[in-house]
Design a protein that fits this description.
The structure holds two protein chains of two kinds. Chain A is of the alpha+beta class. Chain A is built from ten helices and eight strands. In chain A, the strands form three sheets. A four-stranded antiparallel beta sheet of chain A has the order 2-3-4-5. Chain A has a two-stranded antiparallel sheet with strand order 1-8. A two-stranded antiparallel sheet of chain A has the order 6-7. The N terminus and C terminus of chain A are likely disordered. In chain B, 30% of the residues lie in helices and 25% in strands. Chain B has seven helices and ten strands. Classes of the chains: A alpha+beta, B alpha+beta. Chains A and B meet through α2, α3, α8 and α9 of A and α1, α2 and β4 of B.
Chain lengths: 310, 251
């Protein structure tokens, strides 16, 4: 429709040329894509080997000590009247039977055994703390170095300031954004290229609260690092508290990944995956009259590196 | 619904299972653990940088002491030499100090108590994940090293123990000279104001302020100063190190 139609307040004519078309734009630059996939590998292996490490003493406590009877969470086992192993998960004073998954589960040989998390969810599968630690600490370094590269890159290219740091407008739109997310309503076209306030807050939280927090809580578990970090360790409640927080943040990452994957699923798996693999992302665009002011579409002639959201 | 749930469950178990199985195969190779183990050197260097060798482990108050200090690993050595000492309440115990030293020695409990004594309330962190706080009294290892005179070419202190983990595999451990000379590195003979109980390593055990539990050898029989531990045990510097645990267990 033309500007005249709008001015006259006329009902728009049936669209003819106004069919939506797709435009492919370069969205994620190579360093971001590489760091994203390194992160996928590192986080996955750290999580699975972390569960192996947790299995060596599958209980959490608050404070500096791990006294009997003060568990805030524990995965254990007991025998029923018939002598069968029953898996038991205790959270505070609440007890749940979790046979088959937590506390008691089948090993590779199919025989039920006492173990915190099941063997299909730990790296390595069998109870093997020494090897779990090797995987965990190796990928902890991968995760930390990758994270430092990301923050350095994001600051240098202003990705952090421009795309992730919320603006005043973002904050004002938070109510609408929450409602939209709850209704699974997602922006299309140009708008989809800009992170909304919830995305910005989620990414910032995951990077700077979860990422930094889980590394610090990991360091807090090191007796050597405690010699210099003990004020921080005491501030979070103690060494066992740090261990509990490390565990909780790990599950926070899992929650984030599940939501992230869900959003990818409902906003177009193929397009999102292509965006994060090749960098190219397609958006729906509505052809507009060149004369209508204020509607700038990304110009194909603009080189990728100069477009927004690089 | 049930079908979808079981499908999701199978997908999850299947995907995790394949990933875990792949990692297990890497864990079984020669190169896999070696590559993954490279992180240990980084841990050691970076921690030494961030926490200088003079940094002290936090010391706690009497109120922080654990109601029970759980023993772990061996709790009752079965070797005849140890049993004989235990039968006489460790009165005949002598700590043998040898290797690259100027004056090898056999130190009785009284000899040890005449050297530099320290008392510390520190936290013990097990590699498994639990922690306990205890009050330890003992002789500073640095005082023992000064007493015997260490050859400048010696790099490690080896601790040979009375207890055997498997048959004929005595427990042993090693630390470097810097850690050995740290003021919080003790040969402890008392826990919570009582003689060290047998389950906790009587009559003498190693206490290190800034290392994990398995480094803190119990039931000490002999100390040996060496320039390398390549030819001792499986050559990794300790019983658990020979089982794949890190020699520098900084974390």
């Amino acid at each position: 429709m033309s500007a005249e139609d709008l001015d006259a307040g006329m009902a728009p004519p049936m669209p003819m040329a106004v069919t939506a078309s797709r435009k492919v734009i370069y969205r994620h630059p190579l360093p971001i894509r590489i760091m994203h996939w390194i992160n996928v590998v590192a986080l996955t292996l750290m999580f699975l080997s972390g569960l192996q490490i947790f299995n060596a003493h599958p209980s959490l406590y608050w404070g500096n000590r791990s006294d009997d009877g003060t568990e805030i969470l524990s995965l254990g086992a007991r025998q029923d009247a018939a002598g069968n192993l029953v898996g038991v998960t205790r959270i505070g004073r609440h007890e749940f039977t979790t046979t088959g998954v937590l506390g008691v589960s089948k090993g590779r040989d199919g025989v039920p055994q006492v173990r915190g998390f099941p063997s299909w969810l730990t790296v390595p599968g069998p109870q093997w703390l020494a090897m779990g630690r090797r995987w965990h600490f190796f990928f902890a370094w991968v995760f930390v170095l990758n994270g430092l590269c990301y923050v350095g890159y994001a600051l240098a290219t202003r990705h952090l300031q421009r795309d992730l740091w919320p603006t005043g407008t973002d904050w004002r739109g938070i109510g609408r954004s929450i409602v939209d997310h709850l209704r699974f309503k997602h922006p299309h076209g140009e708008e989809a290229l800009r992170y909304n306030i919830l995305q910005r807050l989620a990414y910032l939280t995951v990077i700077f609260v979860f990422g930094v927090g889980i590394v610090l809580m990991g360091l807090a578990m090191s007796p050597r690092m405690d010699a210099v970090l003990s004020p921080m360790v005491e501030a979070v409640g103690g060494r066992q508290s740090a261990r509990a927080i490390h565990f909780i943040i790990a599950w926070g990452f899992v929650a984030f990944v599940l939501i992230h994957l869900f959003e990818v699923l409902i906003t177009g798996v193929f397009n999102q995956l292509r965006g994060m693999i090749t960098g190219y992302y397609a958006i729906d665009v509505t052809p507009v009259d060149e004369d209508v002011p204020g509607q700038d579409l990304p110009n194909e002639s603009v080189p990728p590196e100069e477009r927004p959201h690089d | 619904m049930t079908d979808r749930r079981s499908f999701l469950h199978m997908t999850l178990v299947g995907a995790a299972g394949i990933l875990v199985a792949g990692c297990d195969r890497i864990s079984q190779t020669m190169w896999g653990p070696d590559v993954l183990g490279k992180a240990e050197g980084l841990n050691r260097r970076v921690q030494a940088l961030l926490s200088p060798s003079s940094s002290m482990a936090k010391e706690y108050t009497e109120a922080d002491i654990s109601p029970t200090f759980h023993p772990n690993g061996t709790t009752m050595p079965t070797t005849p030499a140890y049993r004989a000492l235990m039968a006489n309440d460790f009165r005949d115990y002598r700590l043998q100090v040898g290797g690259m030293v100027n004056r090898p020695a056999m130190l009785s409990m009284d000899d040890l108590k005449r050297l530099d004594l320290r008392t510390q309330i520190t936290r013990h962190d097990c590699v498994e994940g639990w922690s306990a706080i205890g009050k330890w009294q003992g002789t500073a290892l640095s005082a023992v090293l000064d007493h015997v005179g260490v050859d400048p070419k010696a790099r490690y202190v080896m601790f040979h123990c009375f207890d055997e983990m498997d048959e004929d595999t005595p427990y042993y451990e090693s630390i470097d000279i810097t850690e050995a000379r740290h003021p919080q590195t003790l040969l402890a003979f008392a826990l919570n104001d009582k003689p060290l109980p047998v389950p906790n390593g009587a009559p003498l055990r190693l206490r290190i302020g800034r290392q994990l539990g398995y480094k803190q050898a119990k039931y000490l029989a002999r100390i040996e100063l060496v320039s390398s531990f390549e030819d001792i045990g499986d050559g990794q510097g300790g019983y658990w190190e020979d089982q794949g645990y890190e020699w520098y267990a900084g974390i």
